[in-house]
Design brief:
Elements (H helix, E strand, L loop, with lengths): L1 H11 L21 E11 L2 E16 L2 E14 L2 H11 L6 E6 L5 E5 L1 H16 L6 H15 L3 H16 L11 E5 L3 E10 L3 E11 L5 E11 L5 E11 L11 E7 L2
Antiparallel strand pairs: 1-2, 1-11, 2-3, 3-4, 4-5, 6-7, 7-8, 8-9, 9-10, 10-11
Helix pairs in contact: 2-4
Length: 265
């Protein structure tokens, strides 16, 4: 009788709630323009330098998933004139340049479409900028060095350069994970982790950290938070801090930049 009483008491205890893995569905709106605003803030001698990109995105169906076309509509700077002029010149070849990505059915980037043609159009825009006689000579010299470095990129690095901006908008097709759980990938040179911090009826909130080696002893480290729409899989907003330097610099230093992305619909 005593054993039956204990068994009955245990049976009446509330069952523990086991967190179930969850992920956003990737069903972006098709054949209509979506607008994102990307704001990068840097501190220089106590002054906030604010750079804003207006990105336009359009999704269409493809046999293997989706096509995502991204166009930088404008690039503006709130900064002292010399800095603003250099920013404007550096981004001018990218303004109006259509970059198309192929995505899987669940939103993972699979690669660039028409990489050769896109790169050719970028180089033509760079040559047109170099021929602009209205640029301040000092600005022109600085920008020519920057753009010459871009133009000289080896073939294997061109796709990564072209995809830098689009991946800020669609680089987060994450597999199912339970709240509080984390996904990690990469190696000593390049790594990423994502922890599902919160779940609500409309969005999933992740804590993100990435690290990429950019020189022998220097890394680009990024960490912050982003929200993904559960119904469409689209990035709703993100706020990331970036550091350039040693591996552990992010633990103690002020960030070199803060990048905020927001879906403007």
């Amino acid at each position: 009788m005593k054993r039956r009483t204990v068994a009955l008491a245990l049976a009446l205890l509330p069952c523990p709630v086991i967190a179930q893995p969850v992920a956003a569905s990737f069903q972006p709106p098709l054949d209509r323009e979506i607008r994102y605003e990307v704001v990068e803030t840097r501190q220089r001698q106590g002054l906030a330098l604010v750079f804003t990109l207006d990105q336009r995105v359009r999704f269409t169906r493809d046999a293997g998933g989706y096509r995502m076309k991204v166009i930088m509509q404008s690039a503006t700077a709130k900064a002292p004139a010399p800095i603003a002029q250099r920013f404007d010149a550096a981004f001018r070849p990218f303004v109006g340049l259509e970059i198309a990505l192929l995505l899987s059915t669940d939103g993972k980037p699979l690669g660039l479409l028409d990489e050769a043609g896109t790169w050719s159009r970028l180089l033509a825009a760079i040559e047109a900028l170099k021929a602009d006689s209205t640029l301040d000579p000092a600005v022109a010299r600085d920008i020519e060095r920057v753009l010459a470095g871009i133009a000289a990129l080896p073939a294997e690095a061109r796709a990564a350069k072209l995809m830098e901006s689009p991946l800020r908008l669609v680089g987060y097709a994450l597999p199912p994970v339970a709240p509080g759980g984390a996904i990690e990938s990469g190696d000593a040179r390049q790594s990423a982790s994502a922890m599902l911090r919160a779940v609500d009826t409309g969005a999933l909130t992740y804590a993100i950290r990435t690290r990429k080696q950019i020189a022998d002893s220097a890394f680009l480290t990024s960490e912050g938070e982003l929200r993904v729409d559960r119904a469409t899989g689209l990035l709703l907003d993100s706020s990331m801090r970036e550091w350039v330097g040693a591996v552990d610099r992010a633990a103690s230093a002020e960030p070199d930049a803060r990048i905020d992305v927001k879906l403007a619909r």
